[in-house]
What does this fold into?
Amino acid sequence: MTPSEPILKVENITKSFGETIILKGVDLAISKGAIKILIGPSGGGKSTLLQCLNCLVTPDTGTIHFNGKVVDIHKKKELYAFRQKMGMIFQDFNLFDHLPALENIVIALRKVKGMKKSAAVKRAMLELDQVGLADKAHLYPAELSGGQKQRVAIARALAMDPRVLLLDEPTSALDPELVGEVVAVIRALAQKGMTMILATHQISLIRNLADEILFMKDGVIVEQGTPDELLGAECMSFSQGFCDRLNELTGEDV
Amino acid sequence: MGDTAFLQELLTALNRGLGMSILLIIPSALGGIIIGITAGSVRAFGSRSMVRIGDGYAALFRGTPLVVQLFVLYFGLPNIGIYLSPYWAAVTGFMLCSGAYQSEYVRGALVSIRRNQYLAAEALGFTRIQTLIWVIIPQAMRRALPGCGNEIVYLIKYSSLAYVVTFMELTGEGKTIATEYFRFTEVFLVIGCYYLMLVSVAKIILRKLEQRLHVPGFG
It folds into this structure.
């Protein structure tokens, strides 16, 4: 493996809301094609960190380097362009409730990328087909199951040709029997070499997909390493203990 | 004096008044909606001083009786050199009053749209304005529609106040006939039917609009 310049690198990200400090100086770098998985207890800052990475939440301090260049997040144009390159998947899907599946994707392509309608529809259908939902294109979010909504959300993010995909607990709001279809889509993305930063409690994703596991607690990354380093049976890591507890809940084997 | 003469005179006057009422209601409703959307958006998203101005406007026009507003516009403004015809005094008053109520429905609908819709749009690279135009407003419009329609139904009925500033619309015409023949009960019952008809037409149009904009599981 050749060491490559990280596609995304952040340094010393801090964020507090009022008196509450959520992030206490986080550094993170990810190379093209790598998959990093954020785990750790709720309230540890995983979501806030992900939202700082595309500046949905503006960090109090810290710098973001994308493709080797510092992103000036106070320049609106630069910020909007940067967000386009950072796809994001939310726990609650966040589809536009007033638009059918296809239009959810088309509107982003037309308004953000300025594509013509016919080209946008073609691209959107292609993306829906990739997640196995071409036949649901004309259904509204309220007519889709949770798993289907999340797959549409993934298709919408991918249509923007993101360089990095941020996934914030993409399976946590799903009924257990619907988790599989979303996990399958994420696995397929991993195989195609998509760069991903993924916060999850999904044991199967943690073990099998992660190039590196980052354990976050109280606003800092307290542990990081490969799954073998952190989850080996003889390890006494936070991550090991955390995954053991997840195991007890789900009955899956790490 | 026969009943036929009375009836003929009554219907001629009321039909003329109906036309005048419609001429009042349509521009007032449209103006009210436009003012309401503008003021509602400002009150939901404006800077602090803009919000204060919007709140002040709504408080003033929701807080004082419409009759008083009309008197001020028609009899008060000439004191500072502004002369409005009865028609324009009435339309201006209705627009401002209706707009104040509409702004409340619009503001409520705008702030009811969940934060995750903003996050989704911004994560895709939408600008703030694009987010409002393509995501927030289309959703808020659907939420606001029943309330805004309700306000138009009110407007149809309070348009009858135009006769206090001497504009002869439905109620004014009817009142003249009623006084002339001293037959108040019959005349006002017929006027009531005219308004009922106007409101029914408005409700049908609004229902059609709601059906057209209907989205499953929304609003």
